[in-house]
């Protein structure tokens, strides 16, 4: 049944999907929306709470290319453009890249190179150091054997700032925010059964408060399994390393305008942040789980502390700096942390009503590629909310699907975070 516009809608989690959902619902005329989060926006537990995130439309899968192109269109509108930087995007492999990484680049390029929605002249193949230096003079390294392409119809979002802005707009339009202990959901509440299904009536929070609603939408990112344990049959919490280097104002001026550089077998980085002069870098890899006993089963859940990064990732980041920006190779890595997202085997999102329940939706399985969708994702959730079911097969809750850690576009092997050495002391769990 389509919810009436004044029914209470409870969104749990004010990260990328939660805020986008609140925005689309409130803009769609819903007047009674509450959004809960364990922390104020941007929460330190949101994968989107970061200086920047890549916005690009190349995918192995053309389905997401279309969605990302819709998102890029939105990022360029006056509503979002303060938070979008169209620097372009270099996607490459280095000399020792595994075949899988090279194949991913070929598939990504195939998805966009003749696409009619890209402006003419968007792409340039990059097969030599000369090519890189011609298009990206900011890079001073040797980048031996790097090959790939430059996509000019791409860039990045100023991530944490875009989340803050979305929250501010939602607040201004009447969405109610509850954060801290009162917003930290610890239990989904069910009332009576109806036709063999459990009726969701809301959630309980760490402070003991009960929030009731006619529809409850879980947007908990990597944390979704802590509240909805059976989703971990499809969603695995995994983490990746993030670090920064500090540039002087003169160095910022030299690196300004540099496209996002993503070397598939090493990692990626952005132009310096305009407020802080920090360059953000992240290591590429298959990700780290944290397998623990969760509601009687073994599942991966985010660690309680995200401080510090694995030593092997610090080495990857250092190699990336050495190859592309050797002038900064002795620079200290600062603000090192791991960032969690929820991976599915096929990198498809799950946006659906939870089976055998009434009034409970889940938006999960972001698979590390949802930030760019901030301007558009909420309308996908609104459609499911109103249709009463998910009509897009790939976004449905999947029963008994075989889980695999061999994600087609990720490089390397998944490891458990407890089995790797950290580059600096950190608390775990
Ligand atoms: C290292 C890294 C790099 C990435 N780079 C990119 C990129 O370049 N481009 C891109 O498009 N995407 C990128 N992503 C992915 C992107 O950040 C995620 O897909 C996106 O943030 C997922 O949104 P979400 O709403 O599902 O979860 P999140 O944004 O993580 O939000 C979840 C929210 O739930 C809250 N929460 C958790 N538990 C509770 C609870 N019990 N009660 C109340 N609130 C709770 C958290 O505080 C948080 O605010 C990257 C991810 C990682 C890890």
Automatic annotation (TrEMBL):
InterPro entries: FAD-dep_OxRdtase, FAD/NAD-bd_sf, MTOX. GO terms for molecular function: flavin adenine dinucleotide binding; saccharopine oxidase activity; sarcosine oxidase activity. Residues 9-381 form the FAD dependent oxidoreductase domain. Its cofactor is FAD. The keyword Nucleotide-binding does not apply. Pfam families: DAO. It comes from the Eukaryota. Keywords: FAD, Flavoprotein, Oxidoreductase. The keyword Thylakoid does not apply. Gene3D superfamilies: D-Amino Acid Oxidase, subunit A, domain 2, FAD/NAD(P)-binding domain. Belongs to the MSOX/MTOX family. This is FAD dependent oxidoreductase. It comes from Hyaloscypha variabilis (strain UAMH 11265 / GT02V1 / F) (Meliniomyces variabilis). The lineage of its organism: Eukaryota, Fungi, Dikarya, Ascomycota, Pezizomycotina.
């Amino acid at each position: 049944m389509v919810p009436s516009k004044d029914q209470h809608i409870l969104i749990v989690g004010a990260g990328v999907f939660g805020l986008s959902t609140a925005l689309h619902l409130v803009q769609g005329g819903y007047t009674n929306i509450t959004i809960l989060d364990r922390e104020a926006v941007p929460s330190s537990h949101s994968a989107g709470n970061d200086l920047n995130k890549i916005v690009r439309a190349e995918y192995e899968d053309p389905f997401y290319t279309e969605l990302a192109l819709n998102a890029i269109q939105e990022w360029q509108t006056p509503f979002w453009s303060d938070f979008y930087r169209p620097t372009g995007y270099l996607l490459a492999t280095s000399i020792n890249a595994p075949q899988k990484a090279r194949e991913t680049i070929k598939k990504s390029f195939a998805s966009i190179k003749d696409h009619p929605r890209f402006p003419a002249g968007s792409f340039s193949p990059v097969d030599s150091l000369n090519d890189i230096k011609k298009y990206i003079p900011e890079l001073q390294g040797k980048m031996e054997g790097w090959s790939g392409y430059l996509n000019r119809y791409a860039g990045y979002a100023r991530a944490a700032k875009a989340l803050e802005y979305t929250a501010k707009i939602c607040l201004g339009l009447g969405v109610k925010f509850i954060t801290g202990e009162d917003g930290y959901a610890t239990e989904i509440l069910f009332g009576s059964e109806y036709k063999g299904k459990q009726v969701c009536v809301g959630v309980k929070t760490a402070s003991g408060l009960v929030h009731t609603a006619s529809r409850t939408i879980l947007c908990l990112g990597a944390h979704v399994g802590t509240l909805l344990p059976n989703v971990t049959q499809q969603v695995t919490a995994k983490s990746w390393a993030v670090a920064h280097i500090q540039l002087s104002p003169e160095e910022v001026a030299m690196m300004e305008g540099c496209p996002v550089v993503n070397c598939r077998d090493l990692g990626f980085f952005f132009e310096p942040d305009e407020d802080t002069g920090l360059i953000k870098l992240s290591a590429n890899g298959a990700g780290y789980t944290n397998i623990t006993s969760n509601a009687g089963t073994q599942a991966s859940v985010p660690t309680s502390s995200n401080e510090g990064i694995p030593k092997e990732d610090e080495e990857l980041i250092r190699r990336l700096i050495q190859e592309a920006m050797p002038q900064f190779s002795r620079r200290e890595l600062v603000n090192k942390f791991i960032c969690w997202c929820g991976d599915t085997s096929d990198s498809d999102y799950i946006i659906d009503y939870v089976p055998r329940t009434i009034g409970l939706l889940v938006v999960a399985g972001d698979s590390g590629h949802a930030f760019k969708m901030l301007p558009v994702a909420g309308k996908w959730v609104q459609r499911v909310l109103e249709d009463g079911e998910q009509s897009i097969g790939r976004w449905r809750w999947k029963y008994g699907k075989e889980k695999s850690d061999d994600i087609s576009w990720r490089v390397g092997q998944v490891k458990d975070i407890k089995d790797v050495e950290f580059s600096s002391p950190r608390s775990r769990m």
